[in-house]
What does this fold into?
Amino acid sequence: MRLEAQTVFGTSLDPAVPGAIFTSPSATLRERSDIGCILLSAAIDGNGILDAAGEAVGVELPATAGAYKTQEARFALMLSPRSWIVQCNIDEETALVGRVNATFADRTINASRFSDYLCWFELCGPDGTLLLKEGGFLSLERDGFRVGHAKRTLIAKVTAVLIRLDDQAWLIGIERSRARYFADWLISCACLDR
Amino acid sequence: MTSAKHGYRLAAGGVIDRQRAVSFSYNGDHLRGYAGDTLASALIANGVGVIGRSFKYHRPRGFYGTGMEDPNSMLAVRDAYGFEPAIRAGQVRLSEGLEACSVTGWPSPEFDVAAIAQLASNVLGAGFYYKTMMWPNWRLFEPFIRRSTGFGRLDSAISRREMHHRHEVADVLVIGGGPAGLTAARQLAHSGLKIVLVDDQPRLGGALLWEAVSFDGVPASEWVDRTVDALKADANVTILTSTMATAAYEDNAFTLVEQRADEHGVRAEHHWKLRAANVVLATGMVDRPLLFADNDRPGIMLGSSVRRLIGEFGVAPADRLTVYTNNDSGYLTAIAARKAGIDVPVLVDTRPQGQAIHAAAAEQSGVRCVFDSQIEGTSGYKHLKAVTVRGSSTVESIRCSGLAVSGGWTPLIQLAGHRGVKPVYQERESMFVVRAAPPGWHVIGGAAGSLHLTTTLAQARAAASAIGSDRGVPMEQGADVSVDCMSYGSISPQWIPDCGARSRMWVDFQNDVKVSDLDLAARENYVSVEHLKRYTTLGMGTDQGRTSNINGLAVMAGLTDRTINAVGTTTFRPPYSAVRMGTIANRRDGDLHQPRRYLPAHAIHEKLGGVLEDFGWERPDWYRSNGADRESAVEAEMVAVRNHVGVFDGSSLGKIEVTGPDAGLFLSRFYVSNMATLKPGGVRYSVMLKEDGVIFDDGVVACLGPNHFLAGPTSGNAEAVAGWFEQWRQTEWPTMRVAVAPVTANWASIAIAGPCARDLLARLEPDFDISPEVFRHMQVREGHVAGVPARVARVSFTGELQYEVSVPSRYAASLLNTLLERGSGLTPRAVGMEAWLRLRLEKGYIHLGSDTNGRTTPLDIGMGGIVAKRKDDFLGKRSLSLAFATSEEREQLVGVEAIGGTLQAGGRILASGHERTPCPSEGYITSACFSPSLGKSIGLALVVRGNERKGETVSVFSDGSIIRCRLTSPTFYDAENKRLNT
It folds into this structure.
């Protein structure tokens, strides 16, 4: 017996079949249900533990805000000085959690299952950035939110993890229960006449 | 003159598009204007004189200005996209089919019945309503006063305007697209800096659109076009026209409202939130009125507005125009009027001839100038007919239909005021200016009190250079340009005239505040500028005193022998200009009003006929599949739990992983119970308090393994509790080795409750032993259920055998389906919130927020024993020993049984000895329901000294009637806990 998995929007779990939630000439919104992740939480400060934790998850953990690191299929971004999200293939979540928690048996660093916490959206198109800016400041930096950066911020009153993949592509992680609201909000923005 | 205009429209001139006629209506009359007109200019061109009525005396009011400084021209306006209940005519660009109507005066502004109030003007002085209408009761008069207030008409039509929100960061924000702002922006352009230039008009240029100016021998309009082209060539420059900077906040954060219009009206509004490193404030200034008797008649207008009407819109405000001034800009008005073919019989200057630098030029254009003179009064009612001029030895009456006044200038520095800047009075120019600008700001041009264009341009270049060097960027050196224009010259202020009745001199045209009112305020010691404002209502109208404040406080200074600086200005607060609520709200209405939270199995609940309600999350209150109506469905759901098994979606319950070597100790500091002693596999219920000892949250904590805990706060508090943990960890206990990870949405939790719950759980094939001897009440297991990772807690909120099965949220729908479908023979039933809450009420378990309030401590809900046992410290412990917490008069939680009638939550418990209301109350019913298991109406209540009153009969006032009840133990069902321990 095994329960069936279902994504937030009912799209396929197969990454080869990306389901678009919304498409227009200027923006496309997709659910990326193939992305899994774990949450690393450190009980102590110090860069000393980062190396060991990075080794356990297979990707260097960034030590500065805004930066992300990638290594093969892994992707790590810093949420706070003591917490990181590590993206992985959804099937690897269990093994990755087990590996970290075995490495840190005293839970100095704890790995939590997190694949189901965030719903990942991919927003592409020339108007993508403009749509997000309807919901809040993406960055208060002069150079804005540069490609290759990631952060956690508020968009449309909802906490979002933003990753800028390129000029016209964003990966957005939204807490699962609010994902449908966020998509509705984004679609309502996209439907406006620009 | 007649040959020079069509109606009041001049035959030539202005920057309007005379090829594009625009039809509109005003109070039902069909009129025509041109593209580029404002509603104000079009109405004046069509000869509309009386545009409204004043607030108190209902005096006729005409156009006094052409922009947002105008205190008089509030109208209701409808275009193809929306309706504005009240907006100044000068702020509305004319669009095809626009409908405008008056908002003051009944039945019309021309004939207003309420104008009879003028007869009582002698008794309607400042603050009359504070002194009168006290007898017999203010409430008697209040409805009438309320009906007579307000400027605007409401309309139920839904706006079709699109609202956008924009959030941007810039290096430099230039506010104002006149000569100062354009020069600064032009010099900063192409330097690599991100520049945003905003102007409230659809066309850049500011006063250059109407003043007679040339740069290097070419008309100012060409210079403007060239400058704008150069700005547009820089991709780093964003030009926002028709955009009002409405507010300035800390860290140079601004709000802007941009209007995007087409030929049918304002199609969209963009509400910008913009943060800039540097700010150039180039907002210019506005003319000030002059005080004289009957200075409020329609036809009297600010001098700069007259020049704007002629220069920008090609409109004559009158066919015979007198000019009254105390400075040199009045001469510019007279000369411009003459050039437009308007008859100017006289220019009255309060100053001696020697100060008037443009007198010769005015006289050359055919204007007779009189000096050392004042206007003593005016005649006419709905339209100005004549003015009386008093010279040093003569008095003469001048027939005219218009009067242009200029009493000096007021720099528009409100945005700097939003940042806390206190303006300083500059004697020489008789104006308030910004002496100490906020960090990163440069105030230039008219906003800085500059009266000479050459100075303005030099200030702009200096500001740009300062910003460039501050930012370390190369910058094009702007060349000096040769400016040819007439200067605004100098001013000799005259605040209170020597002649004319003060009771006829209007300071605030909208609110009918006169010099005599200020006099009265001074006599009654309302001499502080803030008191003056509120007592007389000076500057409290929709124009926010743009034309009246300076005159008002100067008069007050004169009346109290103080300097104007000593009186000071009132406080400038955002927004500078009215902002529509809809613009601020954006799309936050309907389903998008607040972020809605959906359960991971939302679709299944809908399929089961769940009636969803917003409990912070969209949760099923009851299921249509269980009954035709709420009561029958809820009863069926309760019966299912008591007799076989119910399935309840508790996914919204908080889940916070607390990990690390100090995790147990950390949690113990929050909960009343000692969580440090919790062993792996154990679960403990407790409450947590704020520092004042009042219950903040309750829930269970599970120990999943060494140094690994899972706290389960309530659904509504899950995020607040996580934040509470994190706040204390970071600020008070930074050395504790602990991490807090909120994971609520990651896990779907489905509770199965009832005598058959274990059998149903077994059908999910858990990979751990669930036999009652091994998996006991208040224990937790991690493993696999139905082939997927799961955490199963044996806890009970219903009083029955109950398991909470948590699986990753992606399996929620499948788990719920499986439980309901695989339960054949066990007859599982989906259970909604209402039944769940009634089941816990039967058991006597509290529901946070219902059975607790902002005063309830653990001592009040029967947890005194646990508190007493704790030797070590926890948050709120100290407060529990204070007198307020240990008082014998506290409300304590008890059960209530109705002896007759039906209990309802909120019912008040009458004080002992009282059987009728009104009377003192000794508590209230916190939860109530009819219990199918017990066959009676039961409830919980917070009652004064409740613990010692069990068994007592009390009266409860509920829903209009009084019923008798008995106070009992809160536990109505299975007091021995046999069922949940089964």
User: Anything to note?
Assistant: The helical segments of chain A are 48-57, 93-103, 128-133, 179-190. Chain A is about 20% helix and 35% strand.
